[in-house]
């Protein structure tokens, strides 16, 4: 059993087929087949079964999967341990992140990181989730931060939940309509953004599953544009909690609860390569990311009020 065989096995499991695994690993499909065949020969079992065009794990494959994941994690830890014995190169840190993460989550993290590491030059690049993943895989960035980033060549750690919530102007709809049914929301003017993105797909899917057709009055390109339109009473919008927390606290926007629909959950993930140990600079940044993500996000001004100043006698 060799590491590239284990990695390929997990890629086939993750992507559900040899062709897509080959694309993800950037090798040929025959190479994927050869690695899986060699792994099966070394174990003396078949790891996959086929039923028509459907590929699934055999009983042996299901038994192997958790151990294969553990092997890759152990190798990553071993590489990191050896890497930490080497003199620190330091001086530069390249990060890739989704645009919303760059805008709403990272500024405070970057401020603290810069204060603690003033000599480190940080380069922050933005893109969608797939672009972030590619930059990490290609070695252009040490760390990537986006949503739902899963690949056999990277370690994925969920930082926290970042749900999509329905928001409107404080005076529209009126307060008595802040708890509504999904069929009520269908009639409201709605603003959507970034057609084809995961956010767009999630919010559209909410209506599609219920057999409803949302009243879309406006489509824009960015979260910030959608937020500004909502602030001007042009409609309601499903926006990431991370993007509207400040406006909710300040009373510029109001959250609307949909009582008969499941919450639109999304996870905020951080990734880094399994095969390339993190530099000390990157490890320090990862620690700050975890700390920031663990800090509760207040959505109401009552959580941010300061205690009264004692009177001076």
Low-confidence stretches: 303-313
Q: Structurally, how many domains make up the residues?
A: 3
Judged by helices, strands and strand pairing, the structural class is alpha/beta
Query: How many extended strands?
Result: 13
Beginning-to-end CA distance, first to last residue: 78 Å
| Radius of gyration, CA atoms, in whole angstroms | 23 Å
SS summary, helix count: 12
CATH topology name of the largest domain: D-Maltodextrin-Binding Protein, domain 2
Shape: globular
Summarize the amount of helix as a percent range.
40-55%
CATH level 1 class label of the largest domain? Alpha Beta
* CATH homologous superfamily caption of the largest domain: Periplasmic binding protein-like II
Q: Main β-sheet: number of strands, strand sense, barrel status?
A: 5 strands, mixed
So, CATH architecture of the largest domain?
3-Layer(aba) Sandwich
The largest beta-sheet arranges its strands as 4-3-5-13-6
Q: In percent, how much strand structure appears in the residues?
A: 15-25%
Question: Overall mean pLDDT score?
Answer: 86
> What string, H for helix and E for strand, traces the elements in order?
HHHEEHEHHEHEEEEHEHEHEHEEH
């Amino acid at each position: 059993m060799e590491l590239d065989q284990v990695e390929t096995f997990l890629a086939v499991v993750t992507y559900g087929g040899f062709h897509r695994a080959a694309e993800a690993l950037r090798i040929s499909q025959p190479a994927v087949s050869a690695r899986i065949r060699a792994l099966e020969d070394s174990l003396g079992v078949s790891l996959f079964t086929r039923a028509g065009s459907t590929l699934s794990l055999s009983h042996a494959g299901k038994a192997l999967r958790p151990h294969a994941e553990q092997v890759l994690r152990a190798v990553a830890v071993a590489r990191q341990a050896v890497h930490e014995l080497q003199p620190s190169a330091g001086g530069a840190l390249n990060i890739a992140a989704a645009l919303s993460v760059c805008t709403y989550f990272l500024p405070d993290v970057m401020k603290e990181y810069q204060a603690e590491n003033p000599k480190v030059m940080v380069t922050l690049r933005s893109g969608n989730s797939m672009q972030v993943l590619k930059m990490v895989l290609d070695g252009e960035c040490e760390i990537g931060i986006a949503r739902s980033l899963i690949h056999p060549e990277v370690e994925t750690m969920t930082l926290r939940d970042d749900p999509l919530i329905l928001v409107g102007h404080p005076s529209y709809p009126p307060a008595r309509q802040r708890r509504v049914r999904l069929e009520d929301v269908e009639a409201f003017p709605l603003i959507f953004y970034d057609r084809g993105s995961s956010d767009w797909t999630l919010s559209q899917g909410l209506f599609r599953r219920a057999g409803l057709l949302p009243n879309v009055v406006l489509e824009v390109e960015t979260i910030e544009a959608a937020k500004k339109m909502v602030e001007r009473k042009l409609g309601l919008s499903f926006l990431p909690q991370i993007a509207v927390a400040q406006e909710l606290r300040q009373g510029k926007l109001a959250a609307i609860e949909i009582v008969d629909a499941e919450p639109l959950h999304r996870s905020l993930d951080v990734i880094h390569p399994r095969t390339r140990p993190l530099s000390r600079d990157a490890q320090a940044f990862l620690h700050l990311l975890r700390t920031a993500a663990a800090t509760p996000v207040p959505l109401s001004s009552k959580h941010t009020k300061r205690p009264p100043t004692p009177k001076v006698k």
